[in-house]
């Protein structure tokens, strides 16, 4: 696959204030990493939206600003990566404009490119679709770590590690999407019930 045939999503895609719409529209897009000259990619098949300071499930709820969450207050199109339980790196994309800390968590991918590299990263002899389900698995397969938090994913050409998303013309129909509440956020009270999780159930 020659990735130069496709279009990197522009910053304008991420700076929309509609984080829920962005989360839905990321389904079918292709998430790439280029780390130590190793390129790998997967089709995004599940996302969750987090709506900033008014969303009790968000790290930025109630305008919380810490050394970790400060990246969420940057302009849309920035990588936000954090550790879950001190073990798993979780990859998010900051959306909206500066000081409006919306973000989309990438929960699953369908492995597409760089499978041999993914085998090495995961320690598995084979990589199938199930191996990309779960946000910790997404980061592991693609080599994303906390040190990548803050990367500009809209940069066309940068030195060193790079993460970006491409539109490769895949269309995801409304009847192929399951919409429901997010996972593992019972602490968020009524916000835990918001329909901010999107899953592509037809993976072509």
Element-by-element helix/strand order? EHHEEEEEHHEEE
Which range best describes the helical content: under 10%, 10-25%, 25-40%, 40-55%, 55-70% or over 70%?
10-25%
Q: What is the count of DSSP helices, taking H or I runs of 4+ residues? A: 4
Number of strands: 9
Estimate the global geometry from the Cα principal axes.
globular
How many strands, which pairing sense, and closed or not: the largest β-sheet?
9 strands, antiparallel
When the domains are counted, the total is: 1
Task: Output mean pLDDT.
Answer: 93
Annotated CATH topology: 3-methyladenine DNA Glycosylase, Chain A
The end-to-end span amounts to 16 Å
| Poorly predicted tracts of residues | none
* Structural class label: alpha+beta
Describe the structure.
The chain is of the alpha+beta class and 204 residues long. The chain has one domain: Methylpurine-DNA glycosylase (MPG) (3-methyladenine DNA Glycosylase, Chain A). The chain contains four helices and nine strands, in the order βααβββββααβββ. Strands 1, 2, 3, 4, 5, 6, 7, 8 and 9 form a nine-stranded antiparallel beta sheet that branches. α3 crosses α4. The longest helix has 8 residues. The radius of gyration is 16 Å and the shape is globular. The relative contact order is 0.24. The mean pLDDT is 93.
Quick structural overview:
This protein is an alpha+beta fold and 204 residues long. The chain has 4 helices and 9 strands.
What structural keywords apply?
nine-stranded antiparallel β-sheet; 3-methyladenine DNA Glycosylase, Chain A; 13% helix; 204 residues; alpha+beta
